[in-house]
Structure formats: C-alpha cells, structure tokens
Amino acid sequence: MVKVDYEFRKKIMDAHIIDTLKYCYQCNRCTDVCPIATIAPNRYNPRSLILNSFLGLKSAIFENEDNFFIWGCTVCDTCDEVCPQKIELTEVFTVLKNMSIAEGKGPEYYTTQATAIYESGKAIPSQPAIERRREQMSLPQIEPPNVEEVQKILNQTKLNTIINK
Amino acid sequence: MAKAESEYKLFQGCTIGNRIPFIEVSSRKVFDKLGIKTSEGPFACCPDPVGFNAVDHTSWLAMAARNLTIAEQEGKDIVSLCNGCFQTLKAVNHELKHNEHEKEKINDILKTVKREFKGSISVKHFVEVLYDVGIDKIKEHVKNDFSGLKVACHTGCHYNRPSEIMQTDDPMKPKKLRELVAAVGATPVDYEEEMLCCGAGVGNAEEAPSMQVLANKFNSALDAGAEIFVVVCPACFQQMDTNQKKAGEQSNNEFKIPILYLTELFALAFGENPDDLGLKFHRSRLTSFLEKFGFK
Fold first, then answer.
1. Cβ separation B48–A139 shorter than 8 A
2. Could you confirm whether domain B7-126 is CATH 1.10.238.10?
3. pTM across the whole model
4. Fold entry, domain B135-292
5. Residues 180-209 (B) with a CB less than 8 A from some CB of A
6. Which structural domains are found in chain A, ordered by start?
7. CB-CB: which of A68, A152, A157 is closest to B205?
8. DSSP string spanning B10-54?
9. Contact across the interface for B52 and A117, Cβ inside 8 Å
10. Tens digit of pLDDT for each residue in B13-67?
C-alpha cells in the first residue's frame, strides 16, 4: 500500500519556494542528460526521485537499500539547466541528502568533511608539510579562520548534533 | 566590467591553499603580470557546495554568509580560484540578496558572532576576471606561443551552472575559457563530452562510477585529438590529474594526459620557468608536452 508522507511532502515543497515542482510532467530530460543515470541507469534516476518527492512517497526514497539512489547525484547541475519547467532539481536533492545525513545514512565522506570544517574551519586543515611548501614557493601564509566563531555559528545551526560533536 | 584600480579579496579555498598550493603560485604570477591586485582574508571553508551543503543546507548558508561579511567589511569583491568556492559564495550571495526571509534567518545566526550580511559585494571567478582584462591585453604578454597545441577545455560544472544565478558564461557552451586558451596561441578542440562533469562529486559516495565518468570524458577528448586538458577548478584538477590510472583500469585504457590549470598555461606563455611554478608536483607527466614547446 502506497503511503503519502505529508510532512515530508511539505518539507520538499517548502524548499522549493518558486513552487515549480508540481509542474513536473515527467518528461525525463533530467535523466537523459544525467551523467550518472547514463552509466548506472538501474541505480540512479533523477526523474523518479523528483516524482517520489513531490508525491510525498518518502518510503520509496528512504527505504531503498542502495543509498546510491540518493547519493549518486554528482551535483553537476545539468538537470537544472535543461528542465523545461525550470525546476531546480539539485535543490530538492539537497533536501533529500540532508535528510539522509540526519538519519545517519549518508556516505562517510560527508560527515568526515563536516567534522573537519567544524573543528578547524577548513575542509582541508592546514598541515606543516604544506605550510613549508608554501613558504618555499614564496606564497604568503594563509590567515587562519576564527574557529571559535565558526563553532558558534555551527552550534547555532545544530550541525554539532548532526555530526555528534 | 573590471574596475581598473580595484583590489580583490583572494579566495584560494581549502584545496588550493592547503593541498595543491602550486596552483596558487601560477595564479599569483599571472595576476601580477596583468595588474590584478589581491589581498588576503581570514576566510574559513567556503563551504564545499557538494559536500557540506549536502550535510546541512542552513549551516552551508551561514558559513558562506560569514565569509562574505569578511569581504564586505573591506568593501572589496571576492575573486575565487576554485569553481566550488565560486559557486557557494556567488549562490549564497545571490540567495541572501534576493530572499529577505532567508537573509533574516541567516543574520539571526550571524548575530551570535556580531556579524551581519549586507549584500554589498560581488563574487567573481578568476576566468571572468582574466577575460575582463581583455584578450588583446593578454596577447601582449605572450612570450612563448602555444601554436599547434590542441587543448580540451574543461570549465567544470560549478563555473557556469546554475546559469540563472551564476551568469558567468553560456551554461552549455561556455566560450570564455576557449577564447583565453586561444589567446596564448593554442587551439581548443571540439569534443563531444566537453560539458560532461569530471565525476569528482559522485566519487565522494562511490569510486567506480566516478572513474567511469572520468574515462568517458578522457576518451571523448582524445578522440577529438586533444593533447592536454586545461581546467579552472582544483577539484576537477585533482580528479583528472591523480586518477588517470584508475580511470584507465575502469575502461581498459591507459591515460597519460597532461592536465594544466589555465593559470599554469598562462604563466608558461608569459615566460615563467616550469620549476618556479612547481609543475613537478603534478602526477600526470608533463615532460613531453614541455619539451615540445622548448621548456627544459
């Protein structure tokens, strides 16, 4: 039995403030141009993700065993560009990814990177070897970010609870 | 249009700054030569539009807004050396400038660190800044002409998409990089997969599809006779420069393609020595390419 998750549906529709999502007529242009759907058609399909999203069929997305169904998106923004209804698909996929992370189902890379940003302010923290190399190549030192400020902001947005810090 | 005497805040980003700083070397040399002035700022991660935005959208907005306020304090525009940083900073700047509700929400968060997003500056990609200098002016600086060099141009996705916000170039047929490459005498080739993603994004989740996308990209360029790739994004650079063996294994091929940053091609054309640019830190071998054009 198909179950519509209205709360999920509202979340998706709210994210898409221009409200074009409901005008999707499933023409499949997004999937035609998607570089991932081209090489892995059985595992990643932006058209079907959009369909399940605007119908509120949360379980069809999140109860899929293969999380590549969500995380296969390479964020190339090509689908956004060709959609005849000007749906910003990538924004919808970002909502789905955020939900997947909140449920602890995202690929490890993402939370590892977010942790590095939380702890050092940078996705790739400064390292002594690279600092020496910069000096050898006469590059100026990189001004360190104010990590305390970064953490205050990210505590405010509750990122700390998402990544368990 | 470019303001002749203005100074930009340089946003090199985490990858160039803390992993492959040789890209910054050529960028600074090219900027100096063309009279583009920059200064430093205590920026945090942009943050990554593929990684961090996928973790938490609001955190991504707030962190990017904080970086923007640093440049706003000095009243200077930002020039980014990286597609990812460019897309994040430009998109968030655009979003907060045009969405009062989001701006209020983010400024509420920034209040805890006594900052406020005002929306008073612009964000540019270094390709736009070079292009605005003018093709003719760039040609005046060329000492080593790359005539005969066939180049596969790869702008990468976040340089010009989503086009409604980025407004950098044509979204599916960008021309600025091609014209810049031609300015130093080289010939941009037409190849089927010019707009194909490098595959780095999906690589965060799974390696095989990422290598398959990369192999498709390489094969298409090689079929069109390209000798080197010219790129303008450190994520694309790393994907293409370090993964040739894996992409080859994925597709029963052997790739040995020099990958150059646009600023490296320019620096060489302007007479810089390969050693001073740190070209030895590239993984893909550049020797035969450099010898062909008379560099030792």
1. no
2. no
3. 0.96
4. Rossmann fold (3.40.50)
5. 195-197, 199-202, 204-206, 209
6. 6-102 (1.10.1060.10)
7. A68
8. EE-HHHHHHT-THHHHHHHHHHHHHT-EEE---------TTTHHH
9. yes
10. 999 999 999 999 999 999 999 999 999 999 999 999 999 999 999 999 999 999 9
